[in-house]
Amino acid sequence: MAGTVTIRLVTFDFWQTLLADTRESTAAAHALRLDGVRAALAGAGHDYDAAAVQAADARALAALQGVWNAQRDVSPADQVRIFLEALAPALPAMLSATAREAVEAAYATPALTHSPVVSPGAVEAVRRLATEGFVLGIISNTGRTPGRVLRRLLDRAGILGDFGVLSFSDEVGVRKPAAGIFEATLTRAGCPPTAAVHVGDDPVSDVAGARAAGMRALHYLPEGRAPADGADAVIRHLAEVPALLSRLA
Fold it and tell me: What global pTM score does this model have?
């Protein structure tokens, strides 16, 4: 049946697919996050040393991992609240709206300074698919960097306007591989799963998640790792996607 259905929707993962970070950029962004939060709190009259902020970060991350492991997600504001409560339970209520906004900005935006790199062939593939009339979407888990910041990174890459449907886990409230985030995207795109293909690097979140939602899945493996079971095809370079879709269809 897969060969008889016209493909209408192509969705991409964000992290390590369209854009990729490194250990170095991730570490630098996180250091900037902690320094920025500490400085924003100090500006509001709440001084904490670096060790206290780092310890709170570890406690907050453990709490977030519990949420993420349940394939759920929270808003950026709630994520910051969890962080602040890990630092001092009463701290969120002690901050003014202006101070809270400063903390949230410091927490959410380090990736704009230590930016991930656009993957080879990503811009070429997205623009060609858009030109060929496919509806394009993004289905991505967000971690510490919210969807509103990922949009800015896509805009910097020059491809934000090519995507008609963007589903980020902090906005949907559901994380891959849960079917809900795929189903929400399909509903917004007005597309049945049999006419949709998802492209991503993670064998569980992207391949198994998309397949469980009834979509086809292309496993993006630029570094030659073993392909995931159940993938409809493997790609080593994103520029391969348009031609591969033609063969699938």
Answer: 0.94
Task: Please choose, from the candidates 10, 7, 2, 20, the residue with its C-alpha nearest in 3D space to the C-alpha of residue 201.
Answer: 20
Residues paired with residue 199 on neighbouring β-strands, in sequence order: 12, 218
Q: Structurally, how many domains does the chain consist of?
A: 2
Sheet of 9-12, strands arranged across? 165-168, 135-140, 9-12, 196-200, 216-220, 233-235
Amino acid type, 67:
V
Domain ends where: 112, 133, 157? Answer: 112
Q: What is the 3-state secondary structure (H, E, C) of 90-103?
A: CHHHHCCHHHHHHH
Q: List the end-to-end C-alpha distance of the chain, in Å, as a whole number.
A: 10
Helices (H) and strands (E) in the chain, counts: 11, 8
Identify whether residues 63 and 149 lie together within a single domain: no
Range of the domain at 157: 2-21+116-248
At 100, the amino acid letter reads R
Does residue 54 sit in the same domain as residue 82?
A: yes
pLDDT 10s digit of each residue in the chain, 249 long? 344 679 999 999 999 999 999 999 999 999 999 999 999 999 999 999 999 999 999 999 999 999 999 999 999 999 999 999 999 999 999 999 999 999 999 999 999 999 999 999 999 999 999 999 999 999 999 999 999 999 999 999 999 999 999 999 999 999 999 999 999 999 999 999 999 999 999 999 999 999 999 999 999 999 877 788 899 999 999 999 999 998 887
What residue has token string 């969120």? 92
Domain's final residue, options 82, 112, 142: 112
| Phi and psi torsions of 57, nearest 5° | -60, -40
Q: Do β-strands 117-118 and 19-20 pair in parallel, antiparallel, or remain unpaired?
A: antiparallel
